[in-house]
Write a structure and sequence with these properties.
The protein is α+β, with helices and mostly antiparallel strands.
């Protein structure tokens, strides 16, 4: 069998041309697609890594802020405790000074005069103590305290006896009777609804409601229904305590 070298050479040339065509029009485009996909995957991985790093940074930032907040809170508590201690020492020093001065005056004053001086000193101490307590309570009072006091008031209203409910019903039956609720700050909606519901149940009727702000209450509520008044607030309690102490003295 003879080999036709011309045909053989042409076959080789055809094969090389085929290889070049495949490489030019198939292999390179496939490589380009693979390269683009690889670049896309690498970009997505880089983006995911960037997001992860950002999340870690935010987490670290949050932890740092939380730590700073805890430090500030502890510092504020410590400063408040120091202020309370200083104010207590100041009040005690004032009371002790008043007592010592009173003892000195007792040598030359009669019993009535000495009792009057003692009463004056005690009233001053009570006034200062009530003022300090009011300032302290004003710092501590917030919506949470108001909510707890309202919960207590609601519970007390639900435990009223029949006689007490009849007394309330008489007050509510007067012409033009309204429910006037005074608070140191605006109540949350849930506390307001709970209080109104308990009052309606206790009064066995619905009266016009009026909500007012009275910062002197410090915390809690004062409910007025005609001549009937419910005191459930720090301001009235402090005033009642001070007046009771003055009467007792």
């Amino acid at each position: 069998m003879e080999v036709d070298w011309t045909t053989f050479a042409l076959e080789i040339i055809n094969f090389l041309i085929l290889v070049w065509i495949l490489k030019r029009f198939f292999y390179h485009p496939v490589l380009d697609v693979i390269a683009r996909r690889r670049a896309g995957i690498e970009k997505e991985m880089a983006d995911a890594k960037a997001v992860e790093e950002k999340a870690r940074a935010l987490e670290q930032q949050y932890e740092n802020r939380l730590a700073d907040w805890e430090k500030e809170r502890d510092g504020a508590r410590a400063r408040l405790a120091e202020e309370i201690a200083r104010e207590r020492e100041h009040l005690m020093a004032g009371v002790n000074a008043a007592i010592e001065a009173e003892r000195e005056r007792n040598r030359v004053l009669d019993e009535r005069h000495r009792l009057e001086l003692r009463r004056t000193a005690e009233e001053q101490a009570l006034t200062q103590g009530a003022a300090f307590t009011a300032r302290l309570m004003s710092r501590l009072a917030d919506e949470g305290l108001d909510g707890r006091i309202v919960e207590s008031v609601v519970a007390d209203l639900q435990r009223l006896t029949l006689e007490q409910k009849r007394t309330l019903a008489v007050a509510a039956a007067e012409a033009g009777a309204t429910v006037r609720v005074a608070t140191a700050r605006a109540l949350r909606d849930d506390a307001r609804k709970a209080l109104c519901g308990a009052l309606t149940e206790a009064l066995q009727r619905t009266l016009p409601e009026e909500f007012v702000i009275d910062e002197n209450l410090i915390g809690g509520v004062r409910v007025t229904i005609g001549p009937w008044v419910l005191h459930a607030n720090l301001g009235d309690d402090l005033q009642f305590f001070a007046e009771g102490a003055r009467r007792a003295s």
